[in-house]
């Protein structure tokens, strides 16, 4: 799930584009502060890395993370401070969870838009 999609155009800017492996497609949020992405896994996974690639000028300078296991309250995870760049950024962690919420607290875009070309979670079942 995502907080919003630019102009509600899910065909062109929807969440699926973060995971399609194409360098030409992306998720583009609508305007507003605190955009977010929530990932639900079919079963508990041990997360080891989080990969994220923004469009420079539409990135987040502060990402808060919350993770949870089924039936448990969400737990705050270490904060990320991504760079405002087009490069793939990697964060390391050792977490077991069923759900991960990434909140983009501080956009580099004046209107609060976030553009993500790639979002990947690496780990094991």
Describe the model.
This protein is mainly beta. It has a single domain, classed as Jelly Rolls (Sandwich), CATH 2.60.120. It is 3% helix and 48% strand. It is built from 1 helix and 6 strands; from the N terminus they run αββββββ. The chain has one helix at residues 10-13, and strands at residues 27-28, 35-54, 63-68, 75-80, 89-104, 115-124. The chain has a 6-stranded antiparallel sheet, with no helix packed on it. The chain is globular, with a radius of gyration of 14 Å. The relative contact order is 0.32. Keywords: Nucleus, Receptor. InterPro entries: Galactose-bd-like_sf (IPR008979). One of its GO terms (cellular component) is nucleus.
Number of helices: 1
Q: Give the spatial strand order of the biggest sheet.
A: 1-6-2-5-3-4
Fraction in beta strands: over 45%
Relative helix content: under 10%
- Which CATH architecture would you pick? Sandwich
Average pLDDT, all residues = 94
Mass-distribution shape: globular
Taking all Cα atoms into account, the compactness measure Rg is 14 Å
- Structural class of the helices, strands and pairings? mainly beta
H/E element order: HEEEEEE
Q: What's the CATH C level?
A: Mainly Beta
CATH topology: Jelly Rolls
Main beta sheet: 6 strands, antiparallel
Number of strands: 6
The tally of structural domains comes to: 1
CATH superfamily: Galactose-binding domain-like
- Measured between the Cα atoms of the first and last residue, the distance is 21 Å
Low-confidence residue ranges:
none
Subcellular location: Nucleus
Protein name: Nuclear receptor 2C2-associated protein
Main location: nucleus
InterPro entries: Galactose-bd-like_sf
């Amino acid at each position: 799930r995502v907080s919003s999609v630019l102009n509600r155009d899910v065909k062109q800017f929807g969440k699926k584009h973060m995971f399609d492996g194409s360098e030409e497609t992306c998720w583009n949020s609508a305007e507003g502060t605190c955009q977010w992405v929530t990932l639900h896994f079919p079963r508990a996974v041990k997360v080891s890395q989080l990969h994220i690639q923004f469009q420079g000028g539409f990135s987040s300078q502060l990402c808060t993370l919350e993770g949870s296991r089924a039936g448990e309250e969400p737990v705050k995870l270490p904060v990320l401070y991504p760079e405002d760049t087009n490069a793939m950024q990697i964060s390391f962690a050792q977490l077991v969870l069923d759900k991960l919420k990434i909140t983009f607290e501080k956009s580099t875009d004046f209107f609060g838009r976030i553009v993500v070309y790639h979002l990947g979670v690496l780990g094991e079942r």
